[in-house]
Specification:
binds zinc ion; six-stranded mixed β-sheet; alpha/beta; TIM Barrel; globular; Chitobiase, domain 2
């Protein structure tokens, strides 16, 4: 009887121990299988996750995420402990801890956002230069096991009975660009952004629109003030100052001008300098974690909106560019505030009248210029004569010694739903930016619709991959995305994309960020081809039918094709008598599928 009780106690104890790390009793597991380290087998593991007892919030998130996805893959929930316990010999060490496992880490090479994942005996170490780097390392490791983080509503997590890792595993990575923004609203999701290593928290409209990444998720690079760009008006508001001080604003044709969006600042005015410096101090007080202070021209409808007073004219003449006063001014502000805000970058635009660099002025070391690329959309920067001037300008800025970000447009702003076959250029451009030493990329898309009726999510995913590594296997990423995001419809959607890109590239059709869909495809899509494209979408819908989310994705992405047919009155829209009703039905479908903008700032009119 007693013996029975002892046995029962022993069984209960083993059960409790097993449950403590959420797995069955792992003591029978070998350390290795097939020459590789055995992390998990049959829902059992000898490993525990180890954090510093003083871990940053983002390192705790990294440990929780690793635990969550390993559980999801294998059914085994690893215990999380801290480094005050003695090493157990089987550990996954997350972030910077007191464990003696970092001998092979090159912290200088990794910088703040790089990471290293390596195996040392039976310890797996995942650590970055900061909490953000460690998070990136965890997701990198999970991707190596087959996880994919395509979209906020689309992830792939393989089911694995056994998780093995090479005994000499080592993966060290760091980003190609220190500033990485995919400014598509469908890509603003905090967790997705961290999983895809997008680190910009630039925002607009009094910080109400844009990406936000909390310290728990590693934080990001946010701008000071109400928006990341076009903020002269916020630095020195017309309403506040024009009446009493018209001399603060652009002199145009001999007259100081206040008209909103037609005017800039008089940058050689001493009061303007003081007001701007003080306003920046206020903004930094409101958001002390800001890393970039934007000082940039209003988005004027009139290109010649710069100040032409005698002082401004003189500098711009000397510098042979209207960027002369701008750089002179931003340098002054950056010098003035550099001791107060040593970790902050002062950023301005090379845009419209300021597209060319100054002839003599050199940038202060804490100044960055964001060059806005106006270009032929389907063609890579280096492969199209229409893009030659953009390339020439970028290289002039670099030769003049400026640190550059680029602002690349990746959607059609006049028609968010216009089919935009511009994916061929993404990788070539990213490689060009990297090879030229450009520090950051702001890839702007449809920043208003939280879901895209074109291919915003696919493009965001590919862009994020490229901003981390411009030489990544983009075709593989694309195929994986199509098959996961569109489910059974992925192959057909891929065919559609190939046909559209082929048409535009084979016929050397050029278009830009505001072209009309009808013009882009004029004469390219024959009636037979239209029927073929119709069939592709019908097949894609049918093939995704048994997967609700994939079907939603297919129908949403089909909107851009239906939009083209609506504008060009083709296919079902060639029925003139029913055109109004069909257009109304299309608008309603947009609403049902969550798409609410036809173009930048213009909501779709609802019909019921
Ligand atoms: Zn002036
Ligand atoms: Zn071109």
């Amino acid at each position: 009887m007693k013996r029975h009780i002892l046995w029962i106690l022993a069984i209960i104890l083993i059960g409790v121990c097993g449950m403590m790390n959420g797995c069955k009793d792992p003591s029978s597991l070998p350390d290795m299988e097939n020459g590789r380290n055995l992390l998990v087998k049959d829902e059992m593991s000898k490993y525990q996750i180890v954090l510093s007892s003083e871990a940053e919030a983002s390192e705790v998130t990294a440990a929780n995420e690793l635990q969550k996805y390993i559980k999801s893959m294998s059914g085994c929930s690893l215990e999380i402990t801290d480094d005050t316990s003695a090493p157990s010999g089987h550990e996954i060490v997350i972030g910077q801890t007191a464990r003696d496992v970092y001998g092979d880490f090159d912290w200088d090479w990794m910088g703040e956002e790089g990471y290293t994942v390596l195996v040392k005996d039976f310890t797996l170490v995942i650590a970055g230069g900061s909490g953000r780097g460690t998070l990136y390392g965890v997701y990198g490791f999970l991707e190596s096991l087959g996880c994919r983080f395509f979209a906020p509503d689309c992830e792939t997590v393989p089911k694995l009975e056994t998780i093995l890792i090479d005994a000499d595993y080592r993966d060290s990575q760091r980003p190609a660009f220190s500033f990485r923004d995919v400014f598509w609203a469908c890509a603003f999701d905090e967790e997705w952004s961290v999983k895809q290593r997008v680190n910009s928290c630039f925002n607009l409209f009094n910080r109400t629109l844009g990406r936000s990444i909390s310290p728990e998720w590693g934080g990001g690079i946010s701008n000071a003030g109400p928006q990341h760009v076009h903020n002269f008006e916020m630095l020195v508001p017309v309403d506040k100052y024009f009446e009493s001080h018209p001399e603060y604003f652009s002199e145009i044709n001999g007259k100081r001008t206040s008209e909103f969006l037609y005017s800039q600042l008089c940058l050689t005015n001493e009061d303007v300098f003081q007001i701007v410096v003080n306003q920046i101090r206020e903004w930094m007080k409101e958001n002390p974690d800001s890393k970039v202070v934007p000082i940039s021209q209003n988005d004027s409808y009139v290109i010649e909106s710069y100040c032409t007073c005698e002082n401004c004219k003189q500098i711009n003449r000397q510098e042979r560019s209207y960027s002369g006063t701008l750089i002179w001014f931003v340098n002054r502000v950056a010098e003035e505030l550099k001791d107060e805000f040593p970790d902050v970058i002062f950023e301005t635009l090379a845009y419209q009248f300021s597209a060319l660099p100054p002839r003599n002025l050199k940038p202060a070391e804490n100044v960055i210029v964001r060059y806005c690329i106006s270009s032929c959309a389907p063609h890579a920067l280096t492969e199209c004569p229409a893009n030659a001037s953009a390339v020439e300008n970028i290289e002039k800025w670099l030769e003049a010694g400026f640190n550059l970000y680029v602002w690349d447009y990746t959607t059609n702003f006049a028609q968010y739903l216009c089919p935009m076959p511009n994916m061929e250029r993404l990788q070539k451009n990213a490689q060009y930016f990297y090879e030229k030493g450009i520090k950051g990329v702001f890839a702007q898309g449809n920043y208003q619709d939280p879901v895209s009726g074109e291919f915003g999510m696919l493009r965001s995913y590919l862009l994020a991959k490229l901003l981390w590594d411009p030489y990544t296997d983009l075709e593989q990423h694309k195929q994986e995305f199509l098959n996961a995001y569109y489910g059974g419809g992925g192959a057909k959607v891929g065919e559609y994309l190939d046909i559209l890109h082929g048409l535009v590239l084979d016929h050397n059709r050029e278009f830009n960020l505001v072209s009309n869909a009808v013009d882009i495809f004029q004469g390219l899509i024959t009636d037979e081809m239209l029927a073929e494209l119709d069939a592709l979408w019908a097949d894609a819908v049918a093939a995704a039918e048994d997967d609700e989310t994939a079907l939603l994705h297919v129908r949403r992405s089909e909107l851009q094709y239906r939009y083209y047919k609506m504008l060009s009155k083709r296919g079902e829209f060639s029925d003139e008598e029913n055109y109004e009703a069909l257009a109304a039905a299309f608008n309603n479908d947009c609403g049902e599928l969550g798409v609410s903008y036809f173009s930048e700032g213009n909501p779709i009119p609802w019909n019921n």
